[in-house]
Amino acid sequence: MSDIFVLYGSQTGNGESIAQDLAEQLNEANLGVDVKCMPLNQVRKEKISLKEKALLVGLICATTGNGDAPENAESFWRMIKLRSAAKDMFDNLPYCVLGLGDTNYDKFCHMGKAIDKRMNELGGNRMFELACADEGTGTMESTVEAWKDQ
Question: By three-state DSSP, how is residue 3 classified?
C-alpha cells in the first residue's frame, strides 16, 4: 500500500509545525492510507524510495542563511542535487512544494524553489505550482492555508 508523505525542512520549527498540521488534517480526512510526517533527511537516512512507497508527497521547506537548506534537509538536498542522481528517481511521483521564506532576504524561498525544480527534473509529477510563503510581508498564514487546502 502506498502512503502519503509530508516531508519538511525546518530550521526554527515553523515548517515542522505546518507539516504536522497538514499530516493531522490528512489523517482526519480518513483517506484510507497512512500519512507519514518526517524531516526530509529521514528519507535519505532510512533509504526510503519515495517512487515506490509514496502515493503523494507534500514538501515544506524553509530557506536559511544565504539560500541554504535547513539542517534537517541538507542530506536530502545533497542527494537529489547530484548530477549522478537517477533521472527517474521520482518517476511519475505526484508532489507539491511549499517554500517558506522572507522577502527581506535576497534568496527568497530558494530551497523550496530548488527542491520543486529538482523533483520535476528527476521525473516527479508536479500537482500544482510551487507556493512561496513570505514571513516578511505577513502573508505567510494565508499562503500556507491556501496551499494546504489544495
Answer: strand
Do β-strands 35-39 and 94-101 pair in parallel, antiparallel, or remain unpaired?
Answer: unpaired
Q: Residues in the chain, how many?
A: 150
What are φ and ψ of residue 58, in 5° steps? -110, 125
Handedness of CA 106, 59, 12, 85 (dihedral sign): negative
Cα→Cα distances 16→21, 32, 59, 88, 121, Å? 9, 23, 10, 28, 25
Q: pLDDT 10s per residue in the chain (150 long)? A: 589 999 999 999 999 999 999 999 999 998 899 999 999 999 999 999 999 999 999 999 999 988 999 999 999 999 999 999 999 999 999 999 999 999 999 999 999 999 999 999 999 999 999 999 999 898 899 999 999 999
The closest of 144, 47, 66, 50 to 100, measured between CA atoms, is 144
